[in-house]
Amino acid sequence: xxxxxxxxxxxxxxxxxxxxxxxxxxxxxxxxxxxxxxxxxxxxxxxxxxxxxxxxxxxxxxxxxxxxxxxxxxxxxxxxxxxxxxxxxxxxxxxxxxxxxxxxxxxxxxxxxxxxxxxxxxxxxxxxxxxxxxxxxxxxxxxxxxxxxxxxxxxxxxxxxxxxxxxxxxxxxxxxxxxxxxxxxxxxxxxxxxxxxxxxxxxxxxxxxxxxxxxxxxxxxxxxxxxxxxxxxxxxxxxxxxxxxxxxxxxxxxxxxxxxxxxxxxxxxxxxxxxxxxxxxxxxxxxxxxxxxxxxxxxxxxxxxxxxxxxxxxxxxxxxxxxxxxxxxxxxxxxxxxxx
Length: 340
Hints:
The protein is an alpha+beta fold. It folds into 3 domains: 5-70, 2-Layer Sandwich (Uridine Diphospho-n-acetylenolpyruvylglucosamine Reductase, domain 2), CATH 3.30.43; 75-227, Uridine Diphospho-n-acetylenolpyruvylglucosamine Reductase, domain 3, CATH 3.30.465.10; 236-339, Uridine Diphospho-n-acetylenolpyruvylglucosamine Reductase, domain 1. The protein is 24% helix and 28% strand. It is built from 7 helices and 20 strands. It has a 5-stranded antiparallel β-sheet, with no helix packed on it. The chain has a 4-stranded mixed β-sheet with strand order 1-2-5-3, with helices on one face. Strands 13-19-18-17 form a 4-stranded antiparallel β-sheet, covered by helices on one side. The model has no long low-confidence stretch (mean pLDDT 96).
C-alpha cells in the first residue's frame, strides 16, 4: 500500500524550486498504487496534482490536495518487424534516460528530443518537440487511467489529437486521465532529421551520409546546454512560452516593420514566430524583477535563482506577455501549467 505523507514540502519536486506545501503526498510505483491513491483522494475529497519531473508546472501557492508522484518504471520491447520496434515505457521513466536507452539499443527517432526535462508520462500531454521533431512523430499509443471510472483506456496517435505543444489531455480530456505508459514506434535504421538551422550548423563539415543518431543527440545536448540553464543549478522550467503561430498576413505586416523577425513556416497560411526573439526585442533579456530573472542567454527562459514564491514568477511572466503584445501585437502563451 502506498504511503500518504501529510503536510509535505514539494519544493524539491518542481524544477522552479518554488517553496510550497501539499496537504498530502504519495509516490506511485504501480497501477495498483495509482488506484489506491485515487481512491484516497476521493474519500478525503482532495484535488489531485500529478507530478512526473515537475518541469512543466508553476506553483502559485500551497496545493490543497494530494500530490501524486509518478514513480512507475520499466521499458519493454513489445513488438518488432524488419523496420520498426515498439517500445512500451512506464510513465515515471526519465525522458532523457529513455533517449539514451534507445540509442544504446539501436532504436532511432528520439535523438532530436535529447535532454528535454521531465518524465515519459508527461511528454504526450503537451506533445513535446525540439529541433524539427515532435513526440507525435514517434508515438504509437498510450495507456491512461480514467480518474472517475477507474478504467484503463488505450489512446492511439489519432485519438490523442496532437497539435503544437498540445493534445486532447490539455483540451477536452483535461484532468480526466492519468497516463501510465507510452508506446513508441522507433526505427531500426536511422532516418535523421537535420532540418533545424541550429542543428545543421552544428553538423557543418560532416557529410550528411556520415552523421549518426548518436552525433545528432550529442549536438542537441550541446546546443541545449549552451542555451538553457541546468534546473539543478538555476531553477527553471525550460521554455516558459510557446512560439506563437500567426496568419501569414499578420506576419507580413510585422516583417515590414521588423525585417529581422525570426520565423519558421508552418503551412501555407501560418507562420511560427520565435518567442525568445520577441521577448529579447521587447527589452527583457537578462532583466531581474523582484529576484526572478529572464535568462541572459535565452530570453524564452524565466529563472528563479532565489527560490521565491510562484506569484513572483507569474508577475514577471504577465509583464513579459503585456510588453510583447504592446510592441508586436502578438500574444504569448505560457507552456507550464499553473497550480492551484
